[in-house]
Amino acid sequence: MYRLKVGKHVAGHRYSYDSDRPTRLSQTQTFPLQETRKVPKTNTAPAELPDTTSSPVDTTGNTVEPDLETGSTAQLTPPPRWQFWNRTDRPERPRREHHELTAQAHLKTPMELFKEILYSSWMNLLLVFIPVGIALHFVDINPTVVFVMNFLAIVPLAGLLSFATEEIAIKVGQTLGGLMNATFGNAVELIVSIIALVQGKVLIVQASLLGSMLSNLLLVLGMCFFFGGLKHKEQEFNTTVAQTASSLLALAISSLLIPAAFHSSLGSNSVSDSGVLQISRGTSVILLAVYAVYLYFQLKSHAFLYDEVATEETEEAKQHALIPPLWAIGLLILSTVLVAICAEFLVSSIDGMVQGSGISQNFVGLILLPIVGNAAEHFTAVTVAIKNKMDLAIGVAIGSSMQIALLVTPLMVLLGWALGNNMSLYFNTFETAILFITVFIVNYLIQDGKSNYLEGFLLMAVYLIIAVAVWFYPTV
Prior knowledge:
By secondary structure, this protein is mainly alpha-helical. The chain has helices at about 100-105, 110-120, 130-135, 145-170, 175-185, 185-200, 200-230, 240-265, 270-300, 305-320, 325-350, 350-355, 360-375, 375-385, 390-420, 430-445, 455-470, and strands at about 1-5, 10, 15, 25, 30, 65, 75, 235, 450.
C-alpha cells in the first residue's frame, strides 16, 4: 500500500486532474495498488522496458500501471469519482428546512411584508370594497347596494383569514395546525351566523348553514371533479378518508331527520315545539362530542390515514410561508374584526333587500351567503384539484361540510339556547329533502375512489337544480 499525493495546491486546497472541473480532495489520498512491488536497486537495467508513454486502460475504465520488472500491468483502482463527494468524513451540507424558510420572513421590511400579504391572492383586489361597504351603511341608500358592497368585501377577508391561519399553522406544527384549520376553516360562516342569531333571524341562520353544506358538497366538489378531470383523464383519492367524512355527514343528516319526524308525528303545537327544542339541544351536545372524537381520530390515533393529505397541505403551505407569526396573528385578528363589521352590515340589510328586490330569504341564506363564506375554500379546492391533489381537495370540500354539520350548527343551537332564541335542528321538509339527496349522491360518487369531469358536471347540475327550486320557494 502506497500513499500517493495527487494534484496540486490551488488557493490552499488540493485538486485532482481527472476532469475538466476540479474536484476538491483532502491533503493526501490513499489508493490501493494491486500486484505492484518495489523494484530492487541493481546496476543492470532490464533487457526490455515496456512502453510507458501511455497508460493502458482495462475493461472497466480504470488505468493500469506497468510493472518495471516483469512488464505486466498492475491495476490501479482509485476510488470512484463520486466517492470524493460522498466521503464519510466530509460534512454533509445541511438542507434548508421549512422553518429556515419561514425565518427569512423576519428579515423583510414592513413594506415587503405588507406586499406579501397583498399579493397572496388575486381576491385581495376586492379589499377596496371594505371602506365602501362600511361607509354606505351610514348613508341613506338602497339596502341592496349595501348588501352587495359588504358581500364583495367579505370575500377577500375570508381569503385573508385562511392565509393567516395557514401561516400560524406552519409555525405551531402539524397537530395544532390541523386543529386551527378545523376551528377557523368556517370562521366566516360562524361569524355571520352569530350576528344573525343575535338579531333573531333564525331562518337566515338555518338557511345559511344548510346552504354551506350544499355549496361544499355539490358546487365545490363538483368544480374540483370537473376542472381536475379536464386536465387529468381520471383522478384517484383516498376512499377511506372520504367515506369516513361521508359517514359523519350521514350521522348529521340523521340528527336533522329525527326532529323533523318528531314534529311531523305530533303536528304543529306547543308540545311538539317544546319537544323539538329539547331534542335539538340534547342532540347538539352529542354532535359536539362526536366531533371531538373525530378530531382525536384524525390528528392523533389514526393520523396515518391522513398522512397523504397532511403532506399535500404541507407542500401547499410551503408556498405561503411569507410572514412571521406575529404578523399572521395580527392579520388574523384584524380580518376577524373586519369580517364581523361587514357581516353585521350585511345581515342588517337583508330585510330591506328582500322587500325591495323580491328575493326570498331562503335564496339569500341557501345560495348567496354560502358563496361569501366559502369563496376562499372554493378557490383553494379547485386549484389543488387541478394539480391532481384530490385528497386535499376532497378534504376541503367534504371536511368543511362536516365541520358545519358537527361543529357550527350544534354551537348555534346552544348559543340560541343561551340567548333565549328558539334555534333548533328542525328544518322544513323541503330543506331536509335536498340535504338528504345531496349526501346520497356524494356518497354514491366517491365510493370507487376515482373521479372524472362527468361526475363533476353531474354534481354542479344538481346544485343548479336546487338553486332554481330555492328561487321559487317562498319564505314561510
